[in-house]
């Protein structure tokens, strides 16, 4: 499949899927903040992954589908889950103990920027246009503003945690590119297999490190964990692979642009978090950068032609 699906094949249903994906994933960080109030990071991620896997396995059984048994499929599931969920979510979940949900949304939504930089510098499977370069610069500037203005008076205690979120975002970008190798499988099968692997791998570590039988999670934390498992993980990953198949990597990455205002809004609504000036400015810059990078080339050409003026006939 080509890196970006042909524009002619896209319809409003495809973009509705993209919006649904943005809604699912934008809820991740506010819900994580709630869950971490009484559940440690490793146990939280393992639990949400296993809840999501169990939910999807029930649906797969109802649909008459089964998980593949060949080693090739599970190697792909394992690698994709490791770089798309297990490692980055461990990093972000740890970092969210020190960083509020709203700035986490902005920092974690820079995936399209890093995906572009990796494509331009390493894979080169898509053209690096001037508009994409401008978008990458704007996005990186927004990231610097989100982190940097907090540290002008000295090193911030959150600086390391914010850097960890950015490193996790680079892992997300790699997973978006690698995810094209999985488009031959049913999206629900990929999501279920990946989540089952991730939750099972982390379960022994959670038992050893967190001793979950000794925890006393609040009702809010349990609801947040279940909601994360069903909506953010199960539906989110399923929609992610559906969007990759229908829209390709470039347009699928546009959900980063969509989930910034949704995620910040949820952080304010559910957690009562303020929006400081540096976050607002960083949000605007990141949104402008990601939007510039996801504008279809055909639309960009039309705008350029309009700016230059139509050539005279004859």
Automatic annotation (TrEMBL):
GO CC annotation terms, alphabetical: membrane
Membrane-topology annotation of the record: Multi-pass membrane protein
Keywords: Membrane, Transmembrane, Transmembrane helix
Domain EamA: 16-146, 161-293
Transmembrane residue ranges: 43-62, 74-94, 100-122, 129-147, 159-180, 187-209, 221-244, 256-272, 278-300
Record's subcellular location: Membrane
Coiled coil: none
Pfam families tied to this protein: EamA
Protein name as annotated: EamA domain-containing protein
Organism: Bradyrhizobium icense
């Amino acid at each position: 499949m080509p890196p970006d699906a042909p524009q002619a094949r896209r319809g409003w249903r495809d973009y509705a899927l993209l919006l649904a994906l943005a809604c699912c994933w934008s809820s991740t960080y506010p819900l994580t903040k709630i869950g971490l109030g009484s559940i440690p990071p490793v146990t939280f991620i393992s639990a949400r992954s296993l809840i999501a896997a169990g939910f999807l396995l029930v649906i797969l059984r109802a649909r008459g589908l089964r998980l593949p048994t060949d080693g090739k499929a599970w190697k792909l599931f394992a690698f994709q889950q490791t770089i798309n969920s297990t490692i980055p979510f461990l990093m972000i979940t740890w970092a969210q103990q020190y960083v509020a949900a709203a700035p986490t949304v902005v920092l974690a939504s820079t995936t399209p920027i890093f995906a572009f930089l990796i494509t331009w510098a390493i894979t080169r499977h898509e053209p690096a246009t001037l508009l994409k370069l401008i978008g990458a610069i704007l996005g990186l500037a927004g990231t610097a503003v989100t982190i940097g203005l907090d540290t002008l008076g000295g090193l911030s205690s959150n600086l390391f945690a914010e850097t960890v979120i950015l490193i996790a975002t680079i892992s997300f970008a790699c997973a978006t590119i690698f995810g094209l190798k999985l488009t031959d499988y049913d999206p629900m099968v990929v999501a279920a297999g990946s989540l089952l692997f991730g939750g099972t791998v982390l379960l022994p570590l959670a038992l050893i490190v967190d001793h979950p039988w000794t925890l006393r999670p609040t009702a809010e934390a349990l609801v947040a964990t279940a909601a994360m498992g069903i909506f953010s993980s199960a539906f989110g990953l399923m929609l992610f692979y559906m969007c990759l198949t229908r829209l390709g990597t470039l347009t699928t990455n546009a959900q980063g642009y969509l989930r910034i205002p949704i995620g910040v809004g949820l952080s304010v609504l559910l957690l009562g978090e303020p929006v400081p000036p540096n976050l607002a400015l960083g949000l605007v810059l990141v949104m402008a950068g990601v939007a510039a990078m996801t504008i279809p080339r055909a639309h960009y050409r039309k705008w350029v032609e309009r700016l230059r003026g139509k050539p005279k006939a004859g």
